[in-house]
Amino acid sequence: MRTEILPLSDPTAEPRAEALLKAGALVALPTETVYGLAGDSGSGDAVAGIFAAKGRPRFNPLICHVASLSMGRSIATFDDVALQLARHFWPGPLTLVLPLAADAAIHPLATAGLPTVAVRMPRGVVARLAGRLGRPIVAPSANLSGRVTGTSADAVARGLGGRIPLILDDGPSKVGVESTIIRPDGDRLLLLRAGGVGREEIAAASGLPIETPASGAPIAAPGGLASHYAPAGQIRLDAQTIESGEFVIAFGSDTPRGLERAAAVVNLSPSGDLTEAAANLFAALAAFDRPQIQRIAVTPIPRTGLGEAINDRLTRAAAPR
Question: What Gene3D superfamilies would the database entry show (predicted)?
């Protein structure tokens, strides 16, 4: 299959994507977080095609992207807390895991057989296309399962070229890490995945404590695999000293001992800006995702705000495979 790349600014781009989605085909689309591999949530062929193209385990559910809160309420049951969060953060990088509505018109593969559904209202082209389709679009990150997430059209093409017919190019992703995933649970919120909205912001907006599920709990949300986002080489985290020949992902102005021994260095943000670092994270991992690169060292990154999401992705990238 030939994969076409069209600039999002091309007047034919969105109509072409819409036609493919309506035909049950897949399209890689930019969101404000990362690039997503989009398909019609009501089409079994499209949903199954996403799992096949990515090599994604079928027990790992997908996020349903909606054009409006009313579309979200057609597939999920929103309690008062969920409504409060949706009204505060949507459109934006927050996904809610909610009870699946009894008459939700989405294919069962999208929820991986769970009684819940992950739902988000993004900004931009994905929401516009969902509005034209009149139903949600499922769109996990546009990469091979377990590998580095694509934050540019070229990165998507390296992983999925020849597997999908179209990639819409809108330049580098603005946020750079996937959405935060929250599940309301009575008088608390469960943080299922750190992401583009910080824990502190969600706590302030909801007035509820945010807890993290115990490790080893069953996967209840997309992106829950222990090993994910991985380049070819092994990653060593919180590196204070650099070993000879390591490729280094650095952060801020502090210089680790032995940096002169590094084979190459990419700094996520020389000024120590976590927003800039998040936007650059997957591009840095992709730059070092080559078979000949066996060892990658990552210097310490703060765990506050977006730093929690950055460290989550790095921990999964470094996990045993």
Answer: DHBP synthase, Threonylcarbamoyl-AMP synthase, C-terminal domain
Using one digit for the tens of pLDDT, what is the confidence trace for 76-100? Answer: 999 999 999 999 999 999 999 999 9
pLDDT in tens, 182-214: 999 999 999 999 999 999 999 999 999 999 887
107 annotated as belonging to a binding site for a ligand: no
199 assigned to a ligand binding site: no
User: b vs e for 196-216, b when ≥16 Cβ sit within 10 Å of the residue's Cβ?
Assistant: bbbbeebeeebebeeeeeeee
**Does the annotation place 193 within a ligand binding site?**
yes
| pTM metric for this prediction | 0.82
Residue 120 assigned to a binding site: yes
Domains with residue ranges and CATH for the chain:
4-211 (3.90.870.10), 234-318 (no CATH)
Q: Is 212 annotated as a binding residue?
A: no
Q: Is 229 annotated as a binding residue?
A: yes
269 appears as a binding residue in the annotation: no
Q: Is 173 annotated as a binding residue?
A: no
Q: What is the pLDDT of residues 134-161, one digit of tens each?
A: 999 999 999 988 788 889 999 999 999 9
Determine whether the annotation assigns residue 3 to a binding site: no
Residue 141 among known ligand-binding residues: yes
* 43 annotated to bind ligand: no
